[in-house]
Design a protein that fits this description.
Helix content is about 60%, strand content about 15%. The protein is α+β, with helices and mostly antiparallel strands. Helix 2 runs antiparallel to helix 3, helix 13 packs antiparallel against helix 15 and helix 17 packs parallel to helix 18.
């Protein structure tokens, strides 16, 4: 077990907080305005951070409590920001005293406390983010109008006297509201991760302590006000750890907690089902052993047989799957209790009826279905069917058939096991949607990567490249103008630096072109292919390239141009590094409604399945990268290769991609 370092342990946290609080105290001695601005800035940043996390994850998370808090804290941060600007000494609002920032403080705390009290209401209810956003906007507008325009917000501080009764009573009311939000968090503790709940409760309790501290000060610069800001700072740090840090480091503890709980419940249910089946199987085995042991005595045999039959009947009826027995005509002769519940019929309405009366068949007629049952009686051992309940609803089921034979081996019917797979299909659909979102995120990452490559390449070309070129030009001009003057010999010694500068310019240009060739954005993919092949052959002169382009520039969509270039770049890199090929053919064409890129070499080839399955192979990662780029752009990617017979890479896209 690894030992935790001191830096990541509790002593380090205590030491850091001691240093921070001490530094803030020293700051207050130097300038209380600076101290106040630092504390309030931290609170504002945390409030905006909570909003950004919740708002940007709103389409993925299933936690409406977090989304509501995120929207609320955006407006709490706005009010906190206005309070900071209104503080005496900031110089933002002219002709103001300490009453204005105190009024804004009370408005902020009322908004924060009421939001925390209302938020648990949305733990198990839907939330319309737009309506909440509009509501808070109207509330903040009314608060600002009541303070700045209408002048109807009660006074909270009077110079020379101190806090007004309204301000003190408001602090107590806010503390009671916050205490109520703590009670609701405790009542709904099952909805939160224990660590997240602990940090939220501690944050609210420290906010209460801060509010109580703010009821005692006479001046906005005295010790009670200082202590209140300390507690406010720590309370915002705790809600930062509860929401922002947990949301980023352990999203399943906050953003996707409901999904995680559902997965755990499903796993527990599966384990319980397996345990129950094992227990029932053990009971049946014990019964069978007892039956064999008592065969010597007829009466005991009969008693054991009846007991075993009763237990089997109970097991048969209580099984987690439906059991049906069909005769040679396809009619249901026997069905267990689970099967009756599954279809919603009483026994008298289902026994004796043809099985196709309860099956939804889209592609098979009744007669064809009847022939399958009553003909050779050899239907597929396991297949999927859609059944219709009595109330008209349908559900998918997995059917497993076993033939029933008499003592002479003749087929007399079929015994079917029916398993409702509705939940399984829903899970598959959920996984498919998750995969779709993952592919979208991967596409966004690739797009961001290309944009960053483009930016760095532009910076190298426009910044470093131009600076080096200017220095080289200046040195050459100086050498030409002063080469024959006294001291010219010293200047001529600088001639050795010019090739180095030229080399630096070429290296900067090479790095920029490798990151993102400007020709791709300026002239398009066709010109880029020609440029790339020429540059490649300069480096790898032993590899000849046959290039065939049968497509117009306008036929290739702009986003697809980058994908084609990256696939070509990766493929040629692999050929130069791994294939030992001396000839490569590149074909970019349009065939009907599809665009196709074909790269073929005559190298030594490889076992494609073995290479792609090897996670540690850099070659395998390169091929995987090309496949992912193609599929993320809605294309089709194939690799054909075998040892000693070269490699063919084919990527194709629909023209309307």
């Amino acid at each position: 077990m690894e030992r935790r370092s001191f830096v990541s342990g509790k002593p380090a946290v205590i030491l850091i907080w001691t240093a921070v609080l001490s530094g803030l105290y020293l700051t207050s001695l130097y300038s209380y305005l600076l101290f106040h601005s630092l504390v309030e800035t931290f609170s504002i940043v945390v409030a905006y951070g909570i909003f950004m996390l919740a708002w940007n994850a709103r389409r993925l998370i299933d936690n409406n409590y977090l989304l509501f808090i995120g929207i609320a804290y955006l407006f709490v941060g706005n009010l906190e920001f206005a309070h900071t600007l209104a503080y005496r000494g900031m110089g933002i609002f002219h002709d103001t005293d300490a009453n204005l920032p105190t009024q804004l403080w009370i408005a902020t705390r009322y908004t924060q406390s009421l939001s925390l009290l209302v938020a648990p209401w949305f733990l198990r209810r839907n939330l319309k983010a737009g309506s909440v956003f509009v509501g808070y906007s109207v509330l903040m507008g009314l608060l600002f109008l009541s303070i700045f325009a209408w002048d109807i917000f009660p006074d909270c501080f009077v110079e020379g006297i101190g806090l007004t009764p309204f301000k003190k009573i408001s602090e107590y009311i806010i503390s009671l509201i916050l205490l109520g939000s703590v009670v609701l968090l405790v009542r709904n503790r099952r909805e939160f991760d224990p660590k997240v709940r602990q940090w939220l409760i501690l944050s609210i309790l420290l906010t209460i302590v801060a509010e109580l501290a703010f009821t005692f000060y006479v001046s906005v610069y005295d010790l009670s006000n200082l202590a209140g800001h300390y507690f406010t700072l720590i309370s915002f740090y705790l809600i930062y750890k509860a929401v922002i840090e947990t949301g980023l480091v352990k999203p399943y503890s906050l953003l996707f907690r409901n999904l995680k709980q559902s997965e755990q419940m499903l796993q527990q249910a599966n384990e319980a089902l397996e345990t129950k089946v094992e227990e029932r199987t053990q009971e049946l085995a014990v019964s069978n052993e007892g039956l064999q042991a008592e065969m010597v005595r007829r009466k005991r045999v009969e008693e054991e047989l009846r007991e075993s039959e009763s237990q089997f009947r109970q097991l048969y009826d209580d099984a987690p799957v439906g059991y049906y027995e069909l005769n040679s005509e396809g009619r249901i002769m026997r069905v267990n209790h689970t099967g009756l519940i599954m279809l919603g019929y009483p026994p008298q309405e289902i026994v004796g009826q043809p099985v196709w009366e309860f099956v939804v068949e889209q592609d098979v007629s009744r007669q064809e279905f009847h022939d399958k049952i009553t003909g050779v009686l050899t239907p597929p051992p396991v297949f999927e069917r859609t059944f219709r309940r009595k109330n008209g609803t349908v559900f998918p089921a997995l059917v497993q058939n076993r033939l029933i034979r008499d003592a002479e081996g003749r087929i007399t019917g079929i015994r079917s096991t029916i398993l409702d797979i509705t939940e399984r299909k829903q899970m598959v659909e959920t996984l498919r949607e998750s995969e779709k979102r993952l592919r979208f995120l991967s596409s966004q990452i690739l797009s961001a990567q290309e944009n960053e490559r483009k930016r760095i390449a532009r910076e190298l070309h426009d910044g470093l490249g131009q600076i080096l070129t200017a220095v080289k030009f200046k040195m050459e001009e100086t050498l030409r103008n002063r080469g024959g003057t006294p001291g010219g010999a010293d200047l001529r010694s600088l001639e050795t630096l010019i090739p180095m500068l030229q080399q630096g310019i070429e290296e900067a240009r090479r790095i920029g072109m490798d990151l993102r060739p400007s020709i791709l954005d300026d002239l398009g993919i066709l010109a880029t292919l020609g440029w790339f092949c020429r540059e490649f052959q300069k480096i790898y002169s032993g590899i000849s390239i046959e290039k065939q382009v049968d497509i117009q520039e306008n036929d290739v969509p702009d986003p697809l141009k980058t994908t084609i270039y990256r696939i070509l770049q990766e493929a040629m890199h692999n050929i130069a590094k791994h294939s030992n090929a001396d000839r490569v053919s590149i074909n970019l064409n349009r065939s009907g409604e599809r665009i196709e890129l074909l790269i073929r070499d005559n190298g030594r080839g490889f076992n494609s399945e073995e290479t792609l399955s090897n996670e540690n192979s850099r070659k395998g990662l390169g091929l995987t990268s090309m496949r992912e780029r193609t599929e993320l752009s809605s294309g089709h990617f194939t690799i054909e290769s075998s040892k000693g017979h070269g490699t063919t890479i084919r990527a194709s896209w629909s023209c309307d991609t």
